[in-house]
Design brief:
13 strands, globular, 284 residues, 6-stranded mixed β-sheet, alpha+beta, 6 helices, 5-stranded mixed β-sheet
C-alpha cells in the first residue's frame, strides 16, 4: 500500500472541524477581552491587553469639535504559553490504511479543553472573591433567587454573560417553542447563556456570571520558521467567531516513517478588572 498523504483532504477536514468543534466549544470566550494577533511570539512573552475602563463625557450642543475626550484606557499583562496538541500515525497504522483525518477531532477536542482551562484559570476565589451563590445545580432555575443573585452580582457591567456547567444549563434550556432561548438577552444576560464541560480552576465551581472586562486573553503565532521547510502540511485556520488562529502542521519522521502532526498556538489569560465583574456559583 502506498504511503501517501492527502494534504488537501486534511486541510478541508481541519477547516470543517474547526467550525464544528473549536468554534462551538470555545464560543463563550467571545465574552472576554482579547488581543489576538498573527505576530510571532515565544513562550513566556508578555502581551499588554488594552482595557477601556471609562468613556468621555457626552456633550450637548458643543461649540468646539477638536476634542478627543478623556476616555480611560488601562492594560493587563498576559503571559503567553505554547499550547501544543500532538497527534499522528505510526508506520504500521499508515500501512493498514488508517487516515490521519480520522484522529483529528478527538485531538481537536483536547485542544479546546486546554484552551478553555487556560482562559478560565484566573477565575479563582483569590482573584474574584468568595462564591456569590452556593447551591446544587438543580436550584439554579428560571426565576430562582440564585439566578437573580448571579445577575445582580454583575449588574453594573456593560455586557453580562452567564457561563455554567451542563447541570445548571439543563435547568435553563427552553422546554417548549414559547420558552426563552438562551441567546443574547436571555434572563437579562445580554451576552447570552453558555455551558462549559469543565471549570478546572476551582473545585466545585459550577459557573459564573461575568463582565467582558473580567478576563484578558492574548493569542499569537508560534515561531515555526526554523522547521517550516520540513512540513508536508502547514496551514493556519481561524476559529470562526473568536479571531483566534490555530496552526496545523504535519510532517514525517524519517527514522520511524511515522506521520506526525500538531495543532498549536501561543495563548494566555489573566485577571483584568476584578471588582464587580464575576459572580460565581459553587456547588456545596
Amino acid at each position: 500500500m502506498a504511503n501517501t498523504i492527502n494534504s488537501a483532504l486534511i486541510v478541508d477536514t481541519v477547516a470543517e472541524l474547526s467550525l464544528t468543534s473549536l468554534s462551538n466549544r470555545l464560543a463563550a470566550l467571545s465574552n472576554f477581552t482579547s488581543d489576538f494577533s498573527a505576530d510571532v511570539k515565544r513562550p513566556k512573552d508578555v502581551v499588554q491587553v488594552a482595557l477601556s475602563t471609562a468613556g468621555s463625557s457626552t456633550l450637548t450642543n458643543p461649540t468646539s469639535f477638536n476634542s478627543i475626550g478623556a476616555s480611560t484606557l488601562g492594560a493587563t499583562a498576559v503571559t503567553l504559553d505554547h499550547i501544543y496538541q500532538p497527534f499522528g500515525l505510526s508506520y504500521a497504522d499508515i500501512q493498514n490504511g488508517i487516515k490521519l483525518e480520522k484522529i483529528l477531532k478527538v485531538n481537536m477536542d483536547k485542544l479546546a479543553d486546554a484552551l478553555w482551562a487556560a482562559a478560565t484559570a484566573p477565575i479563582t476565589v483569590a482573584n474574584f472573591g468568595a462564591a456569590t451563590v452556593t447551591a446544587a445545580d438543580s436550584a439554579v432555575t428560571p426565576g430562582s433567587a440564585q439566578l437573580k443573585a448571579l445577575w445582580a452580582g454583575v449588574s453594573k457591567a456593560g455586557r453580562k454573560t452567564l457561563i455554567v456547567n451542563s447541570g445548571i444549563y439543563s435547568q435553563l434550556i427552553p422546554t417548549s417553542t414559547t420558552s426563552l432561548p438562551l441567546s443574547a438577552g436571555a434572563y437579562g444576560f445580554d451576552g447570552g447563556v453558555f455551558y462549559a464541560s469543565q471549570f478546572p480552576s476551582e473545585a466545585k465551581l459550577a459557573g459564573f456570571a461575568c463582565s467582558s472586562e473580567a478576563i484578558a486573553m492574548a493569542a499569537a503565532a508560534p515561531d515555526l520558521d526554523s522547521v517550516g521547510n520540513d512540513f508536508l502540511v502547514r496551514e493556519v485556520v481561524p476559529i470562526e467567531g473568536l479571531g483566534i488562529s490555530v496552526y496545523y502542521n504535519v510532517w514525517a519522521d524519517k527514522s520511524t516513517r511515522n506521520l506526525i502532526g500538531s495543532m498549536e498556538l501561543m495563548f494566555g489569560a489573566n485577571k483584568a478588572i476584578t471588582d464587580g465583574t464575576i459572580a460565581s456559583v459553587y456547588n456545596p
